[in-house]
Amino acid sequence: MAAALIDGKGFAAGLRLTVAAEVRRLVADHGLMPGLAVVLVGDDPASHVYVRNKNSQTREAGMASFEYRLPADAPESALLERVAALNADPAVHGILVQLPLPRHMDAARVLDLIDPAKDVDGFHVVNAGRLAVGAPGLVPCTPLGSLMLIKDCLGGDLAGREAVVVGRSNIVGKPMAQLLLRESCTVTIAHSKTRDLAAVVGRAEILVAAVGIPAMIKGAWIRPGACVIDVGINRVAAAEGKTRLVGDVEFDIALAHAGHITPVPGGVGPMTIACLLVNTVRAACASRGLSTVL
Ligand code: GUN
To answer: Which distant-in-sequence residues (6+ apart) come within 8 Å of 171 by Cβ?
Structure first.
């Protein structure tokens, strides 16, 4: 039987409505307007699209959206000064510096300067450390959204499940594995040096693919009935000189094996910005010692 498609687009739309309701409550009851600042350096076209979507979805959720642009040849010191000013601005609860940065800038140094309490990307070492030791903190958006989809598929309790994460990036693979471990899954992290990847993938009741290589995970490897989360967004050549987006999983064949699977596009992608809004509300509430439904 063909797998059920996981409707990340629909789930994200519902989550944005929940965020908007929470924002209305915070404004009405506490005079608290969550604010997200996005800093974009340079002219990368994909980054411009992301930032435009972030800004419009932030405003649609009723939050304050601040956007700062620096030219591609701006000195790193200009970006560091901007981040320092946003750290000190009480109207800003979340700061996101869009990646990738131009080559002359040191992303680690920039991310390190962001106040961990405003680090809505969850990339700061303090937040990575908190996740690793199970302390409250801000969690990277793509793994957070992926976990929401997994829980929705499998009914919430993931304890004891066999989970395999393919990819070990700081942005997706490592935090995803930590989140699944926190849910008491048995977690394996596979990567480019893993031997017999087919056998490792074949164990997974929960499979998260985050390698950035088109169709690298073969559909026939998938354990029957598995919940498959494909984080990959790869642009490949298509007919008539066009291009199309594909994931890291060989989708058509995986469909016949998996129980649930995210499509690309329309699966995990829309969850990332929705979770950025969630993190901004969480950061705003934490700044005032308020609890939140999010
Ligand atoms: N570039 C592409 N995706 C992201 C993201 O989630 N956060 C940041 N900061 N940059 C990105």
So the answer is: 123, 140, 142
